C-alpha cells in the first residue's frame, strides 16, 4: 500500500486502547449483531487526517444517519459512497432512494448494499435487494454485507446461503457483488468458497488487512460536516482510475474476476 495512508494508520494505531467487550454492528443498531472482539477506543478522524488529494476514500450510510445535509457534505465530497438498500427478505432502507439520488446529483460514485440475515435464504434476500437497489451505468458494484451474529448457524448453511445470494446477483446483473466482512469471517466462511469471484471490503480498525482487499474500513469514527454523529471511513486500494474499473455496466458480457 502506498505511503499515503501512513498518517491515518498512525493516528488510529497511536490511539488504540484495547479492552475486552461486546461489539454492536456499526450502523444497524437494531440488528444487535454481537460477538466477542478486542474492543478499542477509536479516535475521531476528520477530513484533514484523510489527505483527500492523495487517498481515494469514501463512506457508507443508511437510515441510521438520518437526514444528511447534502449541500454541506458536497463541500467535503468523498470519492465514493455505499448506501444501504435492504436487509433480509422484507426490509428496505427508508433513506435509500433519497441518499442514492442525492449522491448521484453530486457526481459521487455510488454503490448499494444489502445487510444479510441468517434467518432467511440467500436467493430470497437477493431478490429483495434487486427489487429496490438501483444499478445504473457507472454505479459501483453491489455489496453483500455479512457479519457475525451472537448465535451463528452451521457453517454449511452460511456458505450455501451466501453462495445463493452471490449467484443470484450474478445471474441477474452479470456482475459478482463486493463482499463486506471482517477478516475472521472471511477466513472461516468465504476464503475457500469465493474462488476469487468477489472483491473484498474488509473491516479492520486495528491494522491494515493482510488479505487481497479492494476496500478497507479503517474506522467508524469519521466526523464530517452535514452528517449527524460519526460515519465509517473506507479507503480504496488503488488510484481513482482503478476504482473506475469496478463500475457496473449494463452489458451481456459477464465479468470474470
Automatic annotation (TrEMBL):
Classification via Gene3D superfamilies: Glycosidases
Pfam family, one: Glyco_hydro_25
InterPro entries: GH, Glyco_hydro_25, Glyco_hydro_fam25_subgr
Keywords per UniProt: Glycosidase, Hydrolase
GO molecular function, one term: lysozyme activity
Region forming the signal peptide: none
Biological process terms in GO annotation: carbohydrate catabolic process; cell wall macromolecule catabolic process; peptidoglycan catabolic process
Domain of life: Bacteria
Family: Belongs to the glycosyl hydrolase 25 family.
Record-given protein name: Glycoside hydrolase family 25
Amino acid at each position: 500500500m502506498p505511503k499515503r495512508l501512513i498518517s491515518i494508520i498512525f493516528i488510529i494505531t497511536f490511539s488504540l486502547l484495547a479492552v475486552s467487550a461486546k461489539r454492536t454492528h456499526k450502523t444497524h443498531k437494531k440488528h444487535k449483531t454481537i460477538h466477542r472482539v478486542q474492543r478499542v477506543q477509536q479516535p475521531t478522524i476528520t477530513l484533514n487526517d484523510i489527505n483527500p488529494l492523495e487517498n481515494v476514500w469514501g463512506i457508507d450510510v443508511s437510515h441510521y444517519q438520518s437526514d444528511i445535509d447534502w449541500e454541506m457534505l458536497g463541500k467535503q465530497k468523498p470519492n465514493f459512497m455505499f448506501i444501504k438498500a435492504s436487509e433480509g427478505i422484507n426490509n428496505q432502507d427508508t433513506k435509500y432512494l433519497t441518499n442514492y439520488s442525492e449522491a448521484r446529483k453530486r457526481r459521487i460514485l455510488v454503490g448499494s448494499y444489502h445487510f444479510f440475515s441468517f434467518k432467511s435464504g440467500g436467493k430470497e434476500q437477493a431478490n429483495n435487494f434487486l427489487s429496490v437497489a438501483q444499478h445504473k451505468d457507472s454505479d459501483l458494484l453491489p455489496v453483500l454485507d455479512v457479519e457475525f451474529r451472537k448465535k451463528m448457524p452451521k457453517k454449511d448453511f452460511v456458505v450455501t446461503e451466501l453462495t445463493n445470494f452471490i449467484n443470484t446477483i450474478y445471474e441477474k446483473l452479470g456482475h459478482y457483488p463486493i463482499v463486506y466482512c471482517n477478516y475472521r469471517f472471511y477466513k472461516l466462511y468465504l476464503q475457500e468458497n469465493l474462488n476469487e469471484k468477489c472483491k473484498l471490503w474488509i473491516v479492520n480498525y486495528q491494522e491494515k488487512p493482510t488479505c487481497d482487499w479492494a476496500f478497507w474500513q479503517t474506522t467508524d469514527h469519521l466526523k464530517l460536516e452535514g452528517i449527524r454523529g460519526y460515519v465509517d471511513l473506507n479507503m480504496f486500494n488503488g488510484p481513482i482510475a482503478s476504482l473506475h474499473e469496478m463500475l457496473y455496466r449494463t452489458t451481456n458480457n459477464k465479468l470474470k474476476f
